[in-house]
Amino acid sequence: MLSNPSQLVLRNESLFSGREVLLVGAPQDRLSQELGAETSVHWHWDWLAHQYVQQHGGRSHFGVEPPDGVFDVAIVFMPKAKSRLQYVLQQLTQILPAGHRAYLVGEKKEGTDSAGKWLATLGDGAQKIDRARHCILWEVTVQAQPVSRQDIATQKTLPIAGSGLSVAFWPGVFSEGRLDEGTALLLEHIPELPKGPVLDFACGSGVIASFLLKRQPALALTAVDCDAFALASTQATLQLNQQTGVVLPSDGFSALQGQRFSSIVTNPPFHEGFRTDMAMTSRFIRDMASHLVGGGELWLVANRFLPYAEALQETFATVQVAAENPRFVLYHARRG
């Protein structure tokens, strides 16, 4: 089944006929397979690990920079963060020659209706050429000069648990440019961790990983995330603070098969499904427990309304509320 934006692209397939196309941030669907033989989908540029693993039936590049090469056309699927969209469009000037065309597609609720100002990064004359299923397809002719590929992460010194910590934020990373309230609660109340390997799950900008290493430099720390921009942020944050750790792309726990940790610390991403799908929540918690050694501990902060407490109690030997405020709860659970 195709997403609504993919359906809009498919019904305009004639625009790409005979061209080598780069799909940028495309959803998990069958668009590559549905595009006809006359359209050569040369590469996918993905920054989410689950998209990269699927590979869309074609060649797939995972990272914060586009694949090497020159393409006839790029089709960009609207990312959630406007800062990431701006960065992606700037990078496309590296691989789209002047006079070639780029397309942007997305749902109106994502802000696609007013995307013309962002497309000015590539060239003048951006126009809406089709709309359907609450989606819009934009077209722009590339005129901008190539920009240098540079690390455009913003650096901030955040006040964390009584001290400052240098943090790097690549575009679109969670809580970009600030310390979110849930992570602040976790860092204010988490004690020193026992000896043994530590996992920062869904590491984001690397705030948690760097804080733990600043307090306990000898920790053997692994950080995982599904987002290439988050991984780049974590790596940059560790470098800023002269710290070392293993930073891995992972779709959930896919990169951690057979690994177990003494401690897992996480501010996991919020998913709408967690509100009602207890089966999904329970699987997530069981995965956490299966990657802990006997007696290992989990520190998890989450919005109060999410149903973690019940799932934790079903899986772990002991579960305690270590701290809370009107919006968030910090759970401390220990495996039997």
C-alpha Rg (nearest Å): 22 Å
The largest β sheet comes out as: 7 strands, mixed
CATH class assignment of the largest domain: Alpha Beta
* Tally of structural domains: 2
Strand fraction equals 25-35%
What is the CATH architecture assignment of the largest domain? 3-Layer(aba) Sandwich
Query: Helix and strand string, N-terminal first?
Result: HEHEHEEHEHEEEEHEHEHEEHEHEE
CATH topology of the largest domain: Rossmann fold
Query: What count of helical segments does DSSP give?
Result: 10
Mean pLDDT: 89
Q: In total, how many beta strands?
A: 16
Structure commentary:
The chain is an alpha/beta fold. It folds into 2 domains: 4-141, Vaccinia Virus protein VP39 (Rossmann fold, 3-Layer(aba) Sandwich); 154-334, Rossmann fold. Helices cover 25% and strands 29% of the residues. A 7-stranded mixed β-sheet has the order 3-2-1-4-5-7-6. A 7-stranded mixed β-sheet has the order 12-11-10-13-14-16-15, sandwiched between helices. Strand 11, helix 8 (228-240) and strand 12 form a beta-alpha-beta unit. The two termini are 43 Å apart.
How would you sum up this structure in a few lines?
This protein is an alpha/beta fold.
What are the main properties of this structure?
7-stranded mixed β-sheet, Rossmann fold, 10 helices, 25% helix, 29% strand, 2 domains, single chain, 336 residues, 16 strands, alpha/beta
Helix and strand topology:
Layout: H1 4-10, E1 20-24, H2 31-34, E2 40-46, H3 49-54, E3 60-62, E4 73-77, H4 82-92, E5 101-107, H5 116-119, E6 127-132, E7 135-141, E8 154-160, E9 163-169, H6 181-189, E10 198-201, H7 207-215, E11 221-225, H8 228-240, E12 246-249, E13 261-266, H9 278-290, E14 292-303, H10 308-315, E15 318-324, E16 328-334
Parallel strand pairs: 1-2, 1-4, 2-3, 4-5, 10-11, 10-13, 11-12, 13-14
Antiparallel strand pairs: 5-7, 6-7, 8-9, 14-16, 15-16
Helix pairs in contact: 9-10
